Amino acid sequence: MENNRKVTLTYNDGKDNLDMPVLKGTLGPDVVDIRAFSKTGMFTFDPGFLATASCESQITFIDGDLGQLYYRGYPIEQLAAKSDYLEVCYLLLNGELPTAQERQAFERGIMRHNMLHDQLMSLFKGFRRDAHPMAVMVGVVGALSAFYHDSLDINNAEHRKISAHRLIAKLPNIAAQAYRYNKGLPFSYPKNGLTYAENFLHMMFSTPCEEYKVNKTLALALDRIFTLHADHEQNASTSTVRLAGSSGANPFACIAAGIACLWGPSHGGANEAVLKMLDEIGSVENVPAFMEGVKNKTHKLMGFGHRVYKNMDPRAAIMKETCDEVLNELGLHNDPKFKLAMALEKIALEDPYFIERKLYPNVDFYSGIVLSAIGIPVSMFTPIFALARTVGWISHWAEMIADPAMKIGRPRQLYTGAQRRDYIPQEQR
Ligand code: CMC
After folding, report:
1. Which atom of ligand 1 is nearest to the CA of 308?
2. In angstroms, rounded to a whole number, what is the distance separating the alpha carbons of residues 174 and 114?
3. Is 335 one of the catalytic residues?
4. Helix/strand/coil for 379
5. Which of 153, 173, 292, 354 has the most CB atoms around it within 10 Å of its CB?
6. Given this model, what pLDDT does residue 348 score?
7. From the CA of 306, how far away is ligand 1's center (Å)?
8. Kind and range of the H or E element at 272?
9. Is 285 helix (H, G, I), strand (E, B) or coil?
10. Ligand 1 pocket residue status of 160, Cβ below 6 Å
């Protein structure tokens, strides 16, 4: 909100100064409101949004220097230890923790929406069997808009709520079926009575011949992965969802856009890239040579670094504990891949290259190891991130749509292309 501070822009060519108000949030740095600047005939230039707040939001707060992450004011450490994913979904969507009654009604609402329309299953069959599950998810989630015409009025709060519930409910099912189609397994159905995470494991791994017996420790670890990935403020995919939604596009199309953005290796694709990197390195003896390559910028150390966290990623600390629990449960502490990951982590934390650049392990460095230990195939790591982040995306989308001041997102540019020139007929070129 506005306070009395102002930033004054002065020009060195005699133009009038421009005062710009400084806005204060409840937490975090102050923000200079540069909207008046557009009237001067100039624009600000900030590729990658290094110095730009793209919106006002009340959902998630990150302090990158202190390594803090809050959902609706609650520290991630407390939510990871005391809450569960569905409660976190309610919190992100509604702003408050639910009462027992609200929780029950919410859970029932999600359960009621977890089946997929039978016609949607034909869509899966249009993909090649070897399609990456993220490719299938982009297509199938976008296609949901062709199935739910009854809830596409973005100006109707009830429609927005139903679409949000449908997305949270159906994403695990869609991700699981993308995997099963790839494996040549028959499609599976959700089983109400299981928790959200247990149900996902059941849909992934049950077969018509054999019940999947859910290991509670593994299901809890997965639930924690969902919680840690549920939201992360204005990251690339969330900003993509907001930008797509700012044109009035329907929520299913917007979430499909978010999934597409998340797929990249600098974002949600990093967990998959970590495991591929560990495979590529092979064993601890090869770590020094690999690190030389990182310093020569031949490749990056995947699972390290973050645009906002410059001290530590609080999600990584929680994920490391979960990693320990899961490896203990499965007796995998001597697993060579885990040993290799720990050797990489140790060197990176002590090496001046990483210290100077404030590069620390991020959540994806450990989540890949946990998922792999649970038996989740590498190609499903990013789909799992996508299903967990869906609640964050849809919460941001709903917050934006409900804001009467919403405007279509339309960045400007610094044009450095050709001057105006006349068309040259082909024979004269
Ligand atoms: N390995 C080696 N060097 C790195 C890495 C890395 N993972 N990340 C950054 N650097 C170097 C980079 O080369 C640059 O060096 P110099 O100053 O010599 O040019 C310096 O650190 C600053 O990097 P940057 O690219 O300006 O940082 P950024 O804020 O634009 O990028 C990032 C953030 C996450 C894209 C990047 O750190 C990265 O690509 N990390 C690996 C991918 C990864 O793990 N992503 C998951 C992020 S957490 C999950 C999520 O939120 O999606």
Report:
1. 29
2. 10
3. no
4. helix
5. 173
6. 86
7. 6
8. helix 270-281
9. helix
10. no
What is the DSSP-derived secondary structure letter of residue 368? H
Spell 338-377 as b/e; 16+ CB within 10 A means b.
bebbebbbebbeeeeebeeeebbbbbbbbbbbbbbbbebe
Ligand 1 center to 48 CA (angstroms): 13
pLDDT mean by block of 10 residues, the chain; 429 residues: 82 90 96 91 93 96 95 98 98 98 96 94 96 97 95 95 97 98 96 95 94 91 97 97 98 98 91 90 91 93 90 91 89 84 88 91 89 93 97 98 94 96 97
Distance of CA 328 to the CA centre of its chain: 28
Coil, helix or strand at residue 266: coil
Q: Three-state SS across 71-118? A: ECCEEHHHHHHHCCHHHHHHHHHHCCCCCHHHHHHHHHHHHHCCCCCH
From the list 243, 271, 291, the residue with the least C-alpha distance to 372 is: 271
pTM of the model: 0.92
Atom of ligand 1 nearest to the CA of 313: 48
